[in-house]
What does this fold into?
Amino acid sequence: MQFKLFSKSWDGMRIELVIYRYIIAALLLIVVLTLFGWLRKDQSTVLAPPTITEQMEIGRNKASSGYKKSWGLFTATMLGNLTPGNADFVLKSLEDLFAPETYGELRRRLASDLETLKKEQVSVSFEPSLVTYESATDKVFIAGRSIIEGLGGKTDRFQRTYEFCVRQINGKPVVTRFRSYVGEPHVLSYWASKNKQDDDNAQPCTSTSPGKDTASGEATKTSEVKS
It folds into this structure.
């Protein structure tokens, strides 16, 4: 028997097995790292609906300006069109869109106005004419004409702006800050002209300056219309 040849073959097989083990271990490590990275990746979806003029990109914890503007417009339309018959439904429907603290403050601010709206049969409508996003503050502004009409036919028309901070949290859009006021949008140039850049309401959405995420400003302004 050729023991020398057999010994060389056996040593070669052992070396080859060791090499294969290292290769298998390396491949296993690559698979584990790839799976871990895939599970942690924030998946993004790009939408381009026919009714929107720009693409909207959303992920688990981020969203594009177009997506935030669309949700701001939807929320402003809900808030701005109230009747005695749909007031409670609208307020309840908005609960899932607002952060708990913001919704609680919104509900408290609207309580008296909604009571007046139902008692005096007042209707509020909103016609948006401007939807804009300010990248420096991450704020969405929805401006337009608000109309309040009472039973006697008396109407009040004025310019109104809805201001939102919209965050994408675990794949869901959430309104974390909200303001409503008469007049044009309070963008950075507005605060600069008033020399009030340090005002709490002038701070960007990412700032915690307002103390906590809140809802503030005027509500439905129903007290101005009497039947």
